């Protein structure tokens, strides 16, 4: 019990600004601002598009720089370029034809020709990158840890987290994200990219008084920035807009949709102009398919959908258990945890080709179509003689990567789950595709393959199975469908595979619904206790009396001493107390004589003796307030509680729910007087 209370207090200390936006007051201020603007409103309209454009350009530049640095750091673990230390393996061997022919490149040198030495350097680099990233996050910007999507959903719904979208978070997360990805941890950069994009949107919008003074308008810019973050992460501007509608925004207007689309378009155009990979692709695993699929393959597509649903349920369930263990035992060992995870991942993954390389590069290989020109290096993924060895390697990679995702997601470094899940699904899907193709080649006359052209060796395309498996795993863990369909369409540019993608995702959703799985972002919101209320969480058709009690412990508005509050907290087992004006009554008045004295004092002040509910304060928040404001030597101070919008901003605040308009407001200790 004591440990649970300490955890609750720690959570409140983390968010000393544990408040929500008063939308009514914000709309009043915005209306007054519009009246003052008068005829110059068209200038403000233009200002909105200028802000969105600046945000989009900044997001595109930031994404390009992160991509370039990440590629260089990922390659530096394996070797260096003799022509220039700043060149990664791809640019060092630019003149060599083929992605897998770098062994013929004289300019790229491995760190050692001895296998154990190369393994040791690989592990040491992973440990160094993870240590630097975790240390910077813990020392300078703790909000830079994690994905950030759960918190941003709460912010867009009206919750306030100071510094979560600040410059220090933006700078540290942009700096450490390449280090984390290069360390080999089974985490992705796509979720953190959304957080970074929202930081950019929040900071840029704060430069303009129109947005700085309106909580609603600045959140519209943050919503548009989240769309741009997904757009540059996947090279999918439309998918980014759909993501912001389906996953991020609580209330989405048409006006916000157009701004999100424009911001995503500008960010994607900027990233395309930067061309970080010098291939014309916005992401490494962007691919084009020119082959059709057959109806008998729907059977295997359903298998991929079932896998996606099972994978999502498994990861969400066990990752929450790991998160609980991390909170209980590893809270003060964040840096050591990140280093141990990186070292363990590097030591295990080095011996599997699909775990050793970067996950985006791995997906680029797994998505690849097989043709006559493919061969050599990891191109043997298309060689028939290697198919069963590859299938075993992919199965092992799927199992190990799944376990690593479960234990790695949530550690105190920038960590997303999009790409790791896609990598798991791609490994499983490619394995299924290889097995289906092997079955076709062994039994080409079987009735199930009747639709295949016997003169064509390319009846089965394993790369499409990897592609669909990646979509299934991503949908299974995030519980999003339309967004994944659009993103996958924009990655391939093939209308042909929209129907298979929809089939796979519908099966994934059905399996997830059957197992009662929620998206991992929503589960993390509940796990962290963030004040986010889904529309389906409201209860209808239930009488209020069902959840009410008549014997209440109440706190008077004034006349209560600190020691009385401490006595009340220690002698009750409730979670919070209503704050009332007027005479206190019921069980509260019988706790000690001070309660009756306080009631009598209230009657003398002319409140008429009729209790009036002002608000509510939780026991944990009250403990925190007392611990912050009052040392043990002054137990006789009287407390005065007031509610409202206009209160001095230098007083410590706590979180309350008003009974009058059901909006989250403030409860503040605004007066102290010494008992003579």
Automatic annotation (TrEMBL):
Xref: InterPro entries: Cl-channel_core, ClC
UniProt keyword list = Chloride, Ion transport, Membrane, Transmembrane, Transmembrane helix, Transport
Q: Where are the transmembrane segments?
A: 49-69, 119-143, 164-186, 192-209, 221-245, 257-274, 295-314, 334-355, 415-436, 465-489, 495-516
Write out the annotated subcellular location.
Membrane
What does the record say about its membrane topology?
A: Multi-pass membrane protein
Give the top-rank taxon of the lineage listed in the UniProt record for this protein.
Answer: Eukaryota
- Name-wise, this protein is Chloride channel
Specify the species.
Lentinula lateritia
């Amino acid at each position: 019990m004591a440990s649970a209370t300490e955890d609750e207090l720690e959570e409140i200390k983390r968010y000393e600004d544990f408040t929500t936006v008063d939308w009514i007051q914000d709309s009043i201020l915005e209306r007054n601002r519009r009246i003052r603007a008068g005829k110059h409103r068209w200038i403000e309209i233009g200002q909105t598009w200028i802000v969105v454009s600046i945000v989009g350009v900044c997001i595109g530049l930031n994404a390009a720089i992160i991509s370039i640095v990440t590629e260089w750091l990922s390659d530096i673990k394996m070797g260096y370029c003799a022509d220039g230390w700043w060149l990664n393996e791809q640019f060092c061997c630019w003149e060599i034809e083929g992605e897998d022919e770098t062994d013929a490149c004289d300019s790229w040198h491995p760190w050692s020709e001895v296998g154990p030495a190369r393994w040791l350097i690989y592990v040491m680099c992973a440990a160094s990158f993870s240590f630097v990233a975790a240390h910077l996050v813990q020392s300078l910007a703790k909000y830079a840890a994690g994905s950030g999507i759960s918190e941003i959903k709460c912010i867009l719904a009206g919750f306030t987290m100071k510094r979560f979208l600040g410059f220090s978070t933006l700078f540290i997360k942009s700096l450490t994200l390449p280090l984390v990805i290069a360390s080999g941890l089974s985490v992705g950069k796509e979720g953190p990219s959304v957080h970074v994009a929202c930081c950019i949107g929040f900071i840029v919008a704060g430069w303009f008084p129109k947005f700085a003074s309106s909580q609603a308008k600045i959140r519209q810019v943050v919503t548009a920035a989240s769309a741009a973050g997904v757009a540059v992460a996947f090279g999918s501007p439309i998918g980014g807009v759909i993501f912001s509608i389906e996953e991020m925004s609580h209330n989405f207007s048409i006006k916000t949709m157009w701004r999100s689309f424009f911001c995503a378009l500008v960010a994607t155009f900027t990233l395309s102009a930067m061309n970080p990979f010098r291939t014309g692709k916005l992401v490494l695993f962007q691919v084009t398919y020119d082959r059709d699929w057959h109806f008998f393959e729907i059977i295997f597509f359903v298998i991929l959908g079932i896998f996606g649903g099972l994978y999502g349920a498994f990861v969400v369930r066990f990752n929450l258990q790991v998160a609980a263990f991390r909170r209980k035992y590893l809270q003060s060992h964040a840096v050591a945890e990140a280093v141990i995870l990186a070292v363990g991942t590097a030591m295990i993954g080095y011996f599997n080709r699909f775990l050793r390389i970067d996950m985006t590069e791995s997906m680029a290989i797994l998505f690849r179509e097989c043709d006559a020109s493919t061969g050599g290096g990891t191109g043997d993924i298309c060689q028939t003689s290697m198919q069963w060895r590859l299938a075993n390697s992919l199965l092992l990679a799927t199992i190990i990567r799944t376990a690593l995702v479960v234990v790695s997601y949530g550690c105190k470094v920038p960590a997303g789950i999009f790409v790791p899940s896609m990598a798991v699904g791609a490994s499983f899907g490619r394995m299924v595709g290889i097995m289906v193709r092997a079955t076709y080649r062994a039994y080409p006359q079987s009735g199930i393959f009747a639709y295949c052209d016997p003169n064509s060796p390319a009846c089965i395309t394993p790369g499409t199975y990897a592609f669909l498996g990646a979509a299934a795993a991503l949908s299974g863990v995030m519980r999003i469908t339309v967004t994944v369909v659009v993103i996958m369409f924009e990655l391939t540019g093939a209308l042909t595979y929209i129907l298979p993608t929809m089939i796979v995702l519908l099966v994934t959703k059905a399996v997830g619904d059957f197992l009662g799985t929620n998206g991992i972002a929503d589960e993390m919101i509940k796990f962290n206790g963030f004040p986010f209320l889904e529309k389906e969480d409201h209860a209808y058709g239930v009488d209020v009396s069902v959840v009410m009690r008549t014997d209440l412990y109440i706190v008077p508005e004034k006349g209560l001493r600190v020691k009385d509050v401490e006595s009340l907290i220690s002698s009750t087992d409730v979670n919070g107390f209503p704050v009332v004006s007027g005479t206190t009554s019921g069980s509260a008045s019988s706790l000690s004589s001070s309660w009756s004295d306080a009631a009598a004092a209230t009657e003398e002040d002319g409140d008429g003796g009729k209790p009036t509910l002002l608000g509510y304060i939780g026991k944990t928040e009250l403990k925190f307030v007392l611990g912050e404001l009052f040392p043990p030597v002054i137990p006789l101070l009287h407390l005065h509680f007031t509610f409202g919008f206009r209160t001095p901003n230098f007083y410590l605040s706590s979180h309350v729910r008003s009974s009058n308009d059901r909006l989250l407001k403030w409860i503040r200790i605004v007066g102290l007087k010494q008992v003579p």
